[in-house]
Amino acid sequence: MANFCEGCGAPLKETDKFCQNCGRTVEQKAPEPAQQPQQNFNWKEPESFMKNIPFLYKFFESFGFGRWLNYIYIADGRINRWKYFIENIKVGLLITFIDVPLYIVAYMCLVMPTDSPGACLMLGLLTGFVALVISLLMIPPTYTLGIRRLHDLDKPGWVVLLYFIPYVGTALSLYLLFFKGTDGPNKFGPDPLQ
Question: What's the pLDDT tens digit per position in 152-164?
């Protein structure tokens, strides 16, 4: 209901049907229905910093890794248990089948006696450097995937810092792997299972 008469501007009471000053009929307004919270997300999967380094993205994309690396470096949004498990397995396999052999080659080149020590030293240093770069590139996905998994559980991303505490980090890993995420959308994005 209006608080003031539309005709003369006199103040009105909630129960008035006519203006006490000019006699004009007071319009009764129907109460507005309570608004339901909107569950409509115009949410788009964000892009990681990998897309901002075109030459690196194109290099990895030439091997079929570009989109995957872009996906595992994103810390926004949600990821379900199964996807979290699979992506961590992929990171582990990448380190096992690419990084470890490079470290072995580097070690063999640096400790084995050869006829051309200069060439072997250079090869060892080069393969060791490449292995180190790959190792460093695979550290952030451990945390970004953990952050997204925490988002699925409706927890803030900073909880991933518990990885640094002995035994607590192991418990956190098991929690992320086995506990079901929240049903439906939450404040971090849509349900990854829908």
Answer: 998 998 999 998 8
